Amino acid sequence: MGKFEVLDHPLIQHKLTLIRDKKIGTKIFRETVNEISTLMAYEVSRDMPLEDVTVETPMATTVKKQLAGKKVAIIPILRAGLGMVDGILELIPAAKVGHIGMYRDETTLKPHEYFVKLPSDIDQRQLLVVDPMLATGGSAIMAIDALKKRGATNIKFVCLVAAPEGVKALQTKYPDVDIYTASLDEKLNEDGYIIPGLGDAGDRLFGTK
Ligand SMILES: O=P(O)(O)OC[C@H]1O[C@H](OP(=O)(O)OP(=O)(O)O)[C@H](O)[C@@H]1O
Ligand SMILES: O=c1cc[nH]c(=O)[nH]1
Ligand SMILES: [Mg+2]
Questions:
Q1: ipTM over the 0.95 cut-off
Q2: pLDDT tens across 33-46, in order?
């Protein structure tokens, strides 16, 4: 079974509480999602592989560590996942970015894919699939289906708020995918929204509603 981690750094927790407040407007919501994403990227990248490299300092030649291999691609699930990309790029600026467009039918709660554009070498990269909300898990699973179909093997899923139902569904379908969240919330309501959650992340990020 992959990892399931709630990233409980005090700054992450504080900032998440800020944006749960329904009175917070688009500007602060967007900025804070980016800040949380930067902090989460720091934690999520802890186990990135290193390799030895020879470096000449002004004083001596030495063997030290650098990141190994082809590194990272960030895969936001549109729209709301876009809100996390810039924050992660602050720490991993050379990451490639692939996009998967997905919307959830409001009555059936089933996800529908409408766009896929990915770097050509996703099979060689550590993929960070990002979406603020893991509710039923349908969107995350369909996005990971799309990536695996194209050869991806090394996937982490990063969200801000997860429902127990979504975590279970994703772990059951893809036990090899590590899940990182800033909070494991209580439950889903009858409309498939996370309780207490933060509402509709896409609408709050982009000011649609
Ligand atoms: O786990 P699930 O039950 O699939 O729900 C979570 C999905 O729902 C939201 O997207 P939405 O469909 O609202 O699209 P948007 O990002 O364009 O607003 C959210 O950003 C996730 O992608
Ligand atoms: O609570 C939820 C559930 C799905 N999508 C959201 O944006 N919010
Ligand atoms: Mg939405």
A1: yes
A2: 999 999 999 999 99
